UniProtKB/TrEMBL annotation:
Residue span, L,D-TPase catalytic domain: 235-371
SUPFAM superfamilies according to UniProt: L,D-transpeptidase catalytic domain-like
InterPro entries cross-referenced by the UniProt entry: Big_10, LD-transpeptidase, LD_TPept_cat_dom, Transpep_catalytic_dom
Active site per the UniProt annotation: 320, 339
Descriptive protein name: Ig-like domain-containing protein
UniProtKB keywords: Acyltransferase, Cell shape, Cell wall biogenesis/degradation, Peptidoglycan synthesis, Signal, Transferase
Top-level taxonomy: Bacteria, Bacillati, Actinomycetota, Actinomycetes, Kitasatosporales
Signal peptide stretch: 1-17
Pathway recorded for this protein: Cell wall biogenesis; peptidoglycan biosynthesis
Pfam family name, one: YkuD
Length: 402
């Protein structure tokens, strides 16, 4: 078992008996799903030559608080870098080098804190590129880190599970789970489920009740911490890959129907229930990061600034703006490598576009359901926040406390 303290969305756990070695995979903590090709295809673009590198890389834990974080760029110059504490929104002061090729924080970072780093750069032809990474600094001596989401005080959609991601394997799952209590003001029964040795999620049988308050209480070795978050309105958006339309239902009423383009026959979109876990005004999408390359080893696509992008799975499924598709695409043909595309403009500056509307009217925790896709695989419940794809009986069986 372990003593615990909650720092925003980061749980600092003092390692005692019952903890093992870290169980990590890839760039992120835990045994997350292997990447499954889920990204959007695009026409040939004039991509930027600038290449941003954020050190340490996305998902890193135990990041040092002194001189460990650095942003650099090759074949270009940095135009903007921000580093923000996720829990508080406080921005970390930093200094850009005189030649514009590197950036570093000015001073020591806080321990056991989750930070987001966002960088922008341009090459010699003024073509832009962006880079993003979320990292977590190390905890006090003899501690290890876990991430709790959603954030304390946040308001989320009805599909948002409570997720604990630990950076070390928990061997005594029953002891740990028994010290964590999740309840809702709605009175819904909430049960935990272990996906592996380092990820524990909690959810009710059905989506959270709109307007309810969820309380997470941790009481380990006499140290008690409470995190609360609110459930906003219900928004369930259903993507029909056959009709190529998305129906947005809020609090039981259809408020909009949007033409979409989903995955092609070669790369169909997952069927199933997904939950929005991240939102980006713009994000860089590169086929090589999900194993899509040409015969000569180049990325199958490289889109520097995909607008209005919202993550649906850990393996790379997004619902996002598409400015390169013509009017002959949306609502008429599925052309992507697995993402769901909505009509948009380059830069995302037109708020009247369908992608902008959906982005502005969506929140973390909203549900997106895909149906009638040609995809024959099963979307893993632990691929992102896809918990709702697991039957309730199987979910309950995954609790360590019985």
């Amino acid at each position: 078992m372990a003593a615990v303290g909650v720092l925003g969305g980061v749980v600092s756990l003092t390692a005692l008996a019952g903890t093992g070695n870290a169980a990590t995979s890839g760039d992120d903590v835990g045994n997350h799903p292997k990447p499954q090709v889920r990204a959007d295809q695009t026409a040939t673009q004039d991509a930027s030559d600038a290449r941003i590198k954020i050190t340490p890389k996305q998902g890193a834990y135990d990041v040092g608080i002194d001189d460990s974080v650095k942003v650099t760029v090759g074949n270009g110059k940095l135009t903007k870098v921000t580093m923000t504490a996720v829990a508080t929104g406080a921005e970390v002061p930093g200094t850009l080098s005189a030649d514009g090729t590197s950036w570093k924080p000015n001073g020591r970072l806080e321990r056991a804190t989750r930070y987001q780093v966002a960088a922008e750069a341009k090459d010699a032809k003024d073509r832009s590129v962006t880079g993003n990474a979320t990292i977590t600094t190390l905890s006090p001596a003899n501690n290890f880190i876990g991430r709790l989401s959603p954030e304390d005080g946040s308001t989320v959609g009805v599909g948002m599970p409570v997720t604990f991601d630990f950076d070390k394997a928990i061997s005594d799952k029953a002891a740990t789970e028994s010290k964590i209590h999740v309840s809702s003001s709605s009175g819904q029964q909430v049960v935990g489920h272990w996906f592996n040795d380092d990820r524990l999620d909690f959810r009710p049988k059905n989506y959270w009740k709109p307007g309810s308050t969820v309380t997470v209480t941790l009481n380990l070795h006499g140290t008690q911490k409470t995190v609360t978050f609110k459930i906003g309105r219900s928004q369930i958006s259903t993507v029909d890959a056959k009709t190529k339309q998305m129906t947005v239902v809020r609090d039981g009423k259809t408020i909009k129907t949007i033409p979409i383009s989903s995955g092609s026959t070669e790369h169909p979109t997952y069927n199933g229930h997904m939950v929005i876990s991240e939102k980006f005004r713009q994000v860089h999408m590169n086929g090589a990061t999900v194993g899509l390359t040409t015969k000569d080893g180049k990325p199958s696509y490289d889109i520097e600034a995909v607008p209005h992008a919202m993550r649906l799975t850990a393996s790379g499924t997004f619902i996002h703006g598409n400015y390169w598709g013509t009017d002959a695409v949306f609502g008429k043909v599925n052309t992507s490598h697995g993402c769901v595309g909505l009509k948009d403009v380059k830069g995302g500056g037109d708020g009247k576009q369908p992608a902008a509307w959906f982005f502005d009217n969506s929140m973390i925790g909203d549900v997106v359901i895909v149906k009638n896709s040609e995809d024959k695989t099963t979307l893993a419940p632990d691929n992102g926040l896809s918990d709702w794809n697991m039957p309730w009986s199987e979910w309950v069986a995954g609790s360590a406390t019985g």
